[in-house]
Design brief:
With about 350 residues, the protein is an alpha+beta fold. It has two domains: about 130 residues, Spermadhesin, CUB domain (Jelly Rolls); about 160 residues, Ribbon (Cystine Knot Cytokines, subunit B), CATH 2.10.90. It is about 20% helix and about 30% strand. It contains eight helices and 14 strands. The strands form four sheets. It has a five-stranded mixed beta sheet with strand order 1-3-8-5-6, with no helix packed on it. Helix 4 crosses helix 5. The longest helix is centred in the first third of the chain and has 31 residues. Keywords: Cleavage on pair of basic residues, Developmental protein, Disulfide bond, Glycoprotein, Growth factor, Mitogen, Secreted, Signal. InterPro entries: CUB_dom, Cystine-knot_cytokine, PDGF/VEGF_dom, Sperma_CUB_dom_sf.
Length: about 350
């Protein structure tokens, strides 16, 4: 009886020991299988290497239909040549599980820069399509993750292409600074800028911020005629003013005039170089049988001040003098047709 009891206890201990060893082995496997290793981010054997020699695409499984759950896919795009870069453009059809509290926690697509491990972006949801991405070198990594809940559609599709490196031409040492250019050439260069900041950077790269601050200092020297005559209630945004001129539509009442031509000032440059004014124009149908020509002429004229940036060479000095000035321009408020030979209208 004692021997039988001893044998039963020995068998039970063996079973417990084997179970403990199995549990320990399982725990060890779970411990070493970290999430990043499961996702294949740092383990090359889990990546699918895609050799890029022409345009192509990477997409979620079953795109543009619902992608599967519990999926982790990693692609590493590698260009054959080292001196090229890889450009990624997302397809307009894009939709993954929505973010929680603004964070893509569950289903997402992620792009990583392999050279330094930088995450260029992680996206989910369907409210907007991710923007264009560009690798720093000839490789880039794409990772797609979906959890076990709420798969969405259509997933994603990323189109890739190769970009050759751009080699800018070296600056010519003999290139003249803007202030040394003839006014006509400088006028053409100034006309190409869209914002005040871009213009100031071009004119004075080392002190453009100080120049802008000086322009908008509220001192009595800068209070022009528009303030004196009470016709200006706020500071005009010259950038918006120039944009308005650029987008103007040539209708019978709207014209863009060159300030240098309008004011007959060839010794200075204005920015914006053109302003939108109301001027009479368009066709007239008032002529009768004894009228050879009919013109659209103003019957009511008003004059308005406009604040612009003025550039002028300094007398006997290097550089340009910059100031805000007010120019007076005619605006035609009412127009009528007048026959050349017959004044009857």
């Amino acid at each position: 009886m004692i021997l039988l009891t001893f044998l039963l206890l020995t068998s039970a201990l063996d079973v417990l020991q084997q179970g403990s060893q199995a549990e320990s082995s399982l725990s060890s496997k779970l411990y070493f299988a970290s999430p990043k290793e499961q996702n294949g981010v740092h383990n090359p054997q889990h990546e699918k290497i895609v050799s890029v020699s022409a345009n192509g695409s990477i997409h979620s499984p079953k795109f543009p239909h619902t992608y599967p759950r519990n999926t982790v896919l990693v692609w590493r795009l590698v260009a054959a040549e080292e001196n090229v870069r890889i450009q990624l453009i997302f397809d307009e059809k894009f939709g993954l599980e929505d973010a929680e509290d603004g964070i893509c926690k569950y289903d997402f697509v992620e792009i990583e820069e392999p050279s330094d491990g930088t995450i260029l972006g992680r996206w989910c949801g369907s409210s907007s399509v991710p923007g264009k991405q560009l690798s720093k070198a000839n490789q880039i990594r794409i990772r797609f993750v979906s959890d076990e809940y709420f798969p969405s559609e259509p997933g994603f599709c990323i189109h890739y292409s190769l970009l050759m490196p751009h080699h800018p031409e070296p600056a010519t040492p003999s290139l003249l600074p803007p202030s040394a250019l003839p006014l006509d050439l400088l006028n053409n260069a100034v006309a190409g800028f869209s914002t005040m900041e871009e213009l100031m950077r071009y004119l004075e790269p080392d002190r453009w911020q100080l120049d802008i601050e000086d322009l908008y200092k509220t001192t009595w020297q800068l209070l022009g005629k528009v303030y004196i005559h009470g016709r200006k209630s706020r500071v005009v945004d010259l950038n918006l003013l120039k944009e308005e001129v650029r987008l103007y539509s040539c209708t019978p009442r709207n014209f863009s005039v060159s300030l240098r031509e309008e004011l007959k000032r060839t010794d200075v440059i204005f920015w914006p170089g053109c302003l939108l004014v109301k001027r009479c124009g368009g066709n007239c149908a008032c002529c009768n049988h004894n009228c050879n020509e009919c013109q659209c002429v103003p019957t009511k004229v008003t004059k308005k001040y406009h604040e612009v940036l003025q550039l002028k060479h300094r007398s006997g000095m290097k550089g340009l003098h910059k100031s805000l000035t007010d120019v007076l321009l005619e605006h035609h408020e009412e127009c009528d047709c007048l026959c050349k030979e017959n004044t009857d209208r």
